[in-house]
Amino acid sequence: MRVGLYPGTFDPITMGHIDIIRRACLLVDKLVIGVAINRDKGPLFSLEERVAMVEEECAQLAKETGTEIVAHPFENLLIDCAKDVGAQVIVRGLRAVADFEYEFQMVGMNRSLDSSVETVFLMAEAKHQAIASKLVKEIARLGGDVSKFVTPDVNDALIARFS
User: Domain extents for the chain?
Assistant: First the structure.
């Protein structure tokens, strides 16, 4: 069984994340969505809320693609999380050149730690390249409409959080 790990904070999960998840499902039999605890980022949503959002948003995708999708919170090194869940592949989404520079460094470090785990990059669809959770939160906080960047349920959660 080919197992992939798609890590992130998913604070909140966006249409860009969902696009990468959908396409990653074509590459693996099981996709683990690694929801990073990452206390340094000071997430808007709790870990439990982010895991629930990922599970809710991925349930239909799992049915559509026939791929098992599991949300897995983690706080350790990414490469150790990959080992913990049995992933042979780490899936990363790229939006722009700046993403590549950071990801290039991460791949080098991860390969040094464990060369048996490959990293696969998926380019975000053009319509999703500007979407970043940080920007979505900022727009929502200032009362802007983020409905084209997130699903209706996530949009409702953002509105509730900032009202």
Answer: 3-125
Give the global pTM: 0.94
Band (pLDDT 50/70/90 cuts) for residue 39 is confident
* 128 has catalytic annotation: no
Q: Which of 30, 92, 128, 133 is catalytic?
A: 133
Among 72, 83, 95, 111, which one carries the catalytic annotation? 95
Per-residue DSSP letter, 127: G
Q: Look up 95 and say whether it is catalytic.
A: yes
Task: Work out the percent of the chain whose per-residue pLDDT is above 90.
Answer: 83
Catalytic, out of 2, 41, 134, 141 = 41
CATH number of 3-125: 3.40.50.620
Task: Tell the burial category of 73 from Cβ atoms under 10 Å away from its Cβ (0-12, 13-18, 19+).
Answer: middle
pLDDT digits (tens, 9 = 90+) for 53-80: 999 999 999 999 999 999 999 999 999 9
Q: Is 133 a catalytic residue?
A: yes
Q: Are 125 and 19 in contact (CB under 8 A)?
A: yes
